[in-house]
Design a protein that fits this description.
The structure holds 2 protein chains of 2 kinds.
Chain A lengths: L2 H9 L4 H43 L10
Chain B lengths: L6 H7 L1 H33 L13 H28 L2 H33 L7 H21 L4 H15 L2 H11 L19 H33 L4 H9 L4
Helix pairs in contact in B: 2-8, 3-4, 3-6, 3-8, 4-5, 4-6, 4-8, 5-6, 5-7
The chains are: A mainly alpha, B mainly alpha.
Chain lengths: 68, 252
């Protein structure tokens, strides 16, 4: 593709101001939708580890309370 | 439950099994979504010719229509899972219903905004209170209502049941969205693509549209599985299988 063809492509027949924001929004919303559970997963596991550490500390620093 | 349901269905319904299953399937769905989506975008933005009436503005169709279909498809999945969750009290069905809501809301939001960006140059207005646009806006509010109700309860499962009930009532809106262009005279154009009978669209434009539709389906499965996995970890935090995961991923 040469420079002119690229310019024609990005101009979208004069509708660039409508077409490209639509596509940008599509990707921004879906990327946010993808990242949200990834971040939540990290937070959930971190909180769980804190809780587990607190529990084992309470049980005399032994992760297995039944073993001597 | 009855004997005619095969054993693997019961097994897949158990949180640790589904967690592992979704973990295997999810990356493949995401890869397929990206691959098929790239093909659809290339076909729609580069290969397809400009429309004889709308010029290049019509190219918004390749994200607008698949998103609109997904806004209804995801609602149907959420509604059916809600019925299963309320009738059989299956935890996984609750999770699938509640984790579908944000994805459906995302697609509905995309539909409304891309439609607005398409409407401005073609109709001369960003918004009009016609049947199709209004019912799609109601769909967004239903999704937001389900999400809000779910989070309004201290007890997560109680919230899921209340929100599932709202989701079931809201199903009535899905056929209204779909048939609104036939039932009322609106600014919004009628269906271009038909399951039965010939579609009113050239093949050069149709295949990228269908390809993008397939890509959004794959994306939904990937996003749903990712969300369900996270939610199962949060819901089953006290169980051994989740503690095992928390310990083994401690270094990350």
């Amino acid at each position: 593709m040469n420079m002119h063809a690229l310019q024609v492509f990005f101009a979208m027949g004069g509708y660039a101001a409508y077409v490209w924001p639509a596509y940008a929004l599509f990707f921004i919303v879906l990327i946010a939708d993808t990242l949200a559970p990834v971040l939540r997963r990290r937070r959930v596991l971190r909180e769980l580890r804190v809780r587990l550490a607190r529990q084992s500390a309470r049980q005399g620093r032994s992760p297995h309370p039944t073993s001597p | 439950m009855s004997n005619w349901i095969p054993l693997w269905v019961h097994k897949l319904g158990s949180p640790p099994t589904f967690y592992r299953f979704a973990g295997i399937v999810m990356p493949w769905m995401m890869a397929l979504a990206l691959l098929v989506g790239a093909l659809g975008l290339y076909g729609g933005l580069v290969l397809a010719p400009a429309d004889y009436q709308q010029g290049d503005a019509y190219r918004i169709i390749f994200i607008h229509v698949p998103s609109a279909w997904m806004s209804m498809f995801v609602y149907a999945v959420m509604g059916m899972s809600s019925v299963i969750a309320l009738v059989w009290r299956i935890k996984l069905a609750e999770v699938v219903a509640m984790e579908s809501a944000p994805i459906g809301a995302a697609f509905t939001f995309i539909t409304l905004v891309t439609g607005s960006l398409w409407g401005k140059p073609m109709w001369g207005t960003w918004w009009t209170w016609d049947a199709r646009l209004t019912s799609e806006l109601v769909l967004l509010f239903l999704y937001l209502g389900v999400i809000g109700l779910y989070h309004a309860f201290e007890d997560r499962r109680q919230g899921a049941r209340a929100a599932a009930f709202l989701a079931i009532i809201g199903i009535i809106n899905v056929p209204i969205v779909h048939f609104s262009v036939n039932w009322w005279n609106t600014l919004h154009q009628g269906s271009t693509v038909k399951l039965f009978g010939p579609s009113k669209i050239a093949w050069d434009m149709l295949w990228p549209l269908l390809t993008m539709t397939l890509a959004t389906k794959f994306y939904y499965l990937a996003s749903l599985f990712r969300r369900v996995r996270t939610d199962l970890l949060a819901l089953e935090g006290g169980k051994d299988w989740v503690r095992e995961i928390a310990r083994s991923e401690g270094d990350q």
